[in-house]
Specification:
By secondary structure, this protein is α+β, with helices and mostly antiparallel strands. The chain has a domain of 106 residues. Helix content is 28%, strand content 20%. The two termini are 29 Å apart.
Length: 357
């Protein structure tokens, strides 16, 4: 597949193309646009991948880059206006709102979650041990990955009576798309405001993320990129029938740079709080307020992956070097023993760029 020339936006200056990288140069000798082009072109060598958008915040300098084509064979590269489903990166909004609720004195991390729920759940315990807010945000509450039903909020609550908590809360990381929806509901109760409105008021509006929304109008739907699987088959867009604590937000590269800048400013109380480290998982990362926390090249990185039908993305921030990177693609496929999946490929793309900035 022939990939069209990249669309690049550098601090508001639109450049439709630029000279290809000098392949004799090492990555450390390249300018940022050349560096990004080099690694993006390598990423797009896989014909299952149609496009990639990249946002970089580097010590106050904001740059966005777009390569490939939104639809196979259409020669229509993404732009700064292109909206992506950011999937589980939405969980970092939930975590940030919990951090704010702690700062505001609305909740305590040690609170029993049953104190806030609309029904009695005697099953939400393990040998008498309660499940706390901290267990919810660190995926250590013993909840299943997916709830028994997510067809509606009412069905969600009824289905939770079937859940058996395992293992003991606070002892093991088990990724859960059940717990963050409970968290979103609790935030609604303590602020007496719908969850999505809370996120809009305290995160989107505060940081001028004017294009980041849960619900899209007709015009915005036209900006939402089509997602594809590994066989180039169009995939349906995700529809969340619950609160939106796990997924459902849409964003673009411009807004994600605003969000990275926000989370790189630890003078903001809820940002500093949200970067606390609560639990060492059995994997290569620790976890706090939904941020995965790990050391990369002797530097702390806070990051989260988002994957949904037809789309994948990573968002990473490095406070010590004041750098943030977001990489997004409208393709989704799993890896195997012979070839990595697109989540791993996107991770490699982001880290290769960061290492050579």
């Amino acid at each position: 597949m022939i990939k069209p020339a990249p669309y690049v936006c550098l601090l508001g200056i639109t450049i439709l193309s630029f000279t290809s990288c000098n392949q004799s140069n090492t990555a450390s000798e390249l300018t940022t646009p050349e560096l990004v082009e080099k690694y993006a072109n390598e990423f797009l060598e896989d014909d299952r991948i149609h496009s990639v958008s990249i946002a970089i915040y580097n010590n106050g300098k904001k740059q966005t880059f777009h390569f490939g084509e939104q639809n196979p064979g259409k020669n229509n590269p993404p732009t700064d206006s292109t909206l992506y489903e950011i999937a589980s990166v939405t969980k970092t909004f939930t975590g940030t709102m919990v951090a704010k609720a702690v700062i505001d004195g609305k909740i305590s991390l040690d609170d029993d979650i049953r104190d806030y729920l609309p029904q009695e759940y005697p099953n939400f315990a393990y040998d008498g041990d309660k499940i706390t807010i901290k267990h919810l945000i660190t995926h250590t509450g013993g909840f299943p990955n997916f709830p028994p039903t997510d067809e509606s909020k009412e069905a969600f609550w009824e289905g939770l009576h079937e859940v058996t908590i395992d293992p003991q809360p606070g002892t093991e990381f088990r990724y859960s798309n059940t717990a963050p929806e409970i968290t979103a509901y609790i935030l609604e109760q303590v602020y007496n405001t719908p969850y999505q409105q809370l996120v809009k008021q305290y995160i989107f509006d505060t940081n001028k993320m004017v294009n980041t929304k849960f619900e899209l109008n007709e015009k915005e739907q036209d900006l939402l990129i089509q997602g594809y699987n590994g066989d180039q088959e169009p995939q349906e867009h995700f529809r969340n029938n619950l609160w939106g604590g796990i997924s459902g937000a849409h964003s673009n590269t411009i807004d994600l740079m605003q969000y990275m800048e926000y989370h790189l400013n630890e003078s903001i109380p809820e940002v500093k709080e949200s970067h606390k480290n609560f639990f060492s998982t059995q994997y290569d990362f620790d976890i706090g307020y939904h941020w995965n926390i790990l050391n990369i090249d002797d530097e702390i990185c806070y990051r989260h992956h988002g994957g949904i039908w037809g789309m994948q993305n990573w968002l990473m921030i490095f406070p010590e070097s004041n750098v943030g990177i977001a990489v997004l693609s409208n393709a989704s496929f799993q890896g195997n023993v012979f070839s990595p999946g697109i989540d791993d490929r996107l991770e490699d793309l982001a880290l290769s760029i960061k290492k050579n900035l």
